Amino acid sequence: MKPKSLSIKQWDDLDRPREKLKMHGGTALSNSELFAILIGSGTTNESAVGLMQRILSSVDNDLNKFQRLSLEQLMKFKGIGEAKAIKLKAAIELNKRVQQFSKKKDLVLISSKKVNDFISTDLIGLPHEEFWVLYLNQSSRLIEKYRLSKGGITQTVVDIRLAFKRAFEVGATALILVHNHPSGALVPSTSDKEITRKFKTAATQVDLRILDHLIVSEKGYFSFADEQLL
Predict the structure, then answer these.
(1) CA-CA distance, 71 to 160, in Å (whole number)?
(2) Which residues of the chain register pLDDT less than 50?
(3) Which domain range does residue 28 map to?
(4) Which 3 state secondary structure label does DSSP give 210?
(5) DSSP bridge pairs for 180
(6) 118 shares a domain with 83
(7) Do 90 and 146 belong together in one domain?
């Protein structure tokens, strides 16, 4: 193991992250080495790889926990300024989009599990509540996912008119509602039930269908359709 005072430029070519990737491909690199390439440098006494090892160690080397770190939390680590923190967050977001693109291609949402598998990465771990709408065609094929609102810890304001307006714009015939509970609770609140009822009642007036309403958290998910609450 190399001393912290040794910069990456002083390492053997085979141990440098960029050279390793060039010669052997990305699979030959550890997570800390891949992130080190992004941030470019560490501190006077710590290499970029050492710095990333320290950050990842703080979240038990769990990439799911790492992706939830905010810009402010990343910048608390010595050696990570705003520019580096933004690069790391951008890389995380790109990875999420790649995963979602592969999931979205010809995605037919015919079960609550499929819906949860698709949307949970957007919502799990957030410190606030968000309300999303999935727009589907007549065959239950996904057209678009849309964040309708972003709120506080316990609730968010939902504009049904805006949700339906978007449905008409994208040509959707069915909607699936999704929101998260930062507390982890999977029991629908009175307001959850009320907004679901309002959506369903309004949808019948404009020839749209509400297929489900999911509540997601780190503990799993709750489906109004599965529980026959629609």
Answers:
(1) 32
(2) 1-6, 12-14
(3) 8-101
(4) strand
(5) 216
(6) no
(7) no
